[in-house]
Specification:
2 domains; six-stranded parallel sheet; Dihydrodipicolinate Reductase, domain 2; eight-stranded mixed sheet; alpha/beta; Rossmann fold
């Protein structure tokens, strides 16, 4: 399949690996800074010679043969580029968050339906071995009635990280710890607990990163329509390095804790009724080369199968919208001081402009 990559920053390494592992034909690559393409190919050892661009619109116009595009730019332009690619007749893989507003997320979903083209959002941790084992147990009913769950993303991001790219830590182009780092865990938590969130109450703060516009820590409580409740903790304030990303699920008949840096290990696996795979699952670890895990290759493989079979991707645009909705609901709750009822109709990250000052980067 003929493919192009738009955006060659930090996460693009995982996309190139997924391209190679799935045998895609990399026709073109685009980045505003041409040197980023050289750095990307050097990091990955990629030796192909795709056409190079600094303007994705020119790239789309000059390559009508493209079938699939991945978007790995700064978050603020994900929606704009996704819509342009759909209008150009291309299937789309887009990094999280899929948009920075509910309106744009809904526009992407609507355009996908109108065109019959597929959109997959990079919540790649759904493909982690540990996550898949938890999901299988959940679908088999092994937890019984769910009580509650929680996710904790306890990472470190220092000033040097934010200085690497001027779009980071800004409301229009990135958001804070919840939008950038914690949204993967939020996706998993909402997915595991039944997706139907009824109400969100959240608090955010900017404790140590006063050179940013956005939060460096956020906490929230979620109430689900099925009666389950959940908590969220996301921060980049952990000293001196990334500590963990953990996901807990507590049911009447089972308890599971996923750990590691990106929910890639099983730390606790206990159920009332034993299963032949339980001993294998206890203590399971999946080695990863970075906090993004190994899921991009599987997400790409699923997207290619979805295109061939004309079905929805495993992580579709609605899944991306659901994760975004929770983050924006937490932001709105911080802004208003009140619980926020879902669905969230019209809210955007820039509605928080000035909340913590304007930053100094």
């Amino acid at each position: 399949m003929k493919y192009a990559l738009i955006g060659c920053g930090r996460i693009a390494v995982n996309h190139i690996r997924a391209v190679v592992n799935n045998g895609l034909e990399l026709v073109a690559v685009c980045d505003l800074v041409p040197e980023h393409i050289d750095i990307l190919f050097e990091k990955t050892g990629y030796t192909g010679t795709p056409a190079r661009y600094t303007d994705y619109r020119v790239m789309l116009a000059e390559h009508p043969e493209l079938q699939l595009v991945a978007i790995a730019t700064d978050s603020g332009v994900h929606a704009e580029i996704a819509l342009a690619c759909l209008d150009a007749g291309l299937h789309v893989i887009v990094e999280k968050p899929m948009a920075m507003s509910m309106e744009d997320a809904d526009r992407i979903i609507a355009r996908s339906r109108e065109t019959g083209l597929l959109v997959s959002v990079c919540h790649q941790n759904r493909f982690n071995i540990a996550v898949q084992r938890m999901r299988k147990a959940l679908e088999q009913g092994r937890f019984g009635r769910l009580s509650h769950g929680s996710v904790h993303v306890r990472w470190n991001r220092n000033r040097a990280y934010y200085e690497q790219a001027p779009w980071r830590g800004k409301w229009a182009s990135d958001g804070g710890a919840l939008m950038n780092q914690c949204i993967h865990g939020i996706d998993l938590l909402r997915w595991m607990l039944g997706d139907e969130v009824e109400e969100v109450y959240g608090l955010t703060r900017q404790q140590f990163h006063d050179y940013l516009e956005c939060e460096d820590v956020g906490l929230a409580v979620l109430k689900f329509k099925n009666g389950a409740i959940a908590t969220v903790e996301g921060t980049v304030n952990v000293y001196p390095k990334n500590l963990e990303e953990t996901l807990y699920l507590f049911g009447e008949k089972g308890t599971v804790k996923l750990g590691g840096t990106s929910c890639n290990n099983i730390d606790v696996w206990d159920f009332v009724e034993a299963d032949e795979g339980d001993e294998e699952n206890r203590g399971l670890t999946e080695a990863t080369s970075n906090v993004y895990g190994n899921g991009h290759t599987s997400l790409y493989a699923d997207m290619l199968s979805a295109i061939a079979e004309n079905r929805r991707p495993y992580v579709d645009a609605t899944a991306g919208r659901n994760a975004l909705e929770v983050v924006l609901a937490i932001y709105k709750s911080q802004l208003t001081g009140l619980p926020v009822r879902l669905p969230l109709e019209d809210f955007r990250s820039t509605d928080l402009t000035g909340l913590f000052g304007e930053g100094s980067l």
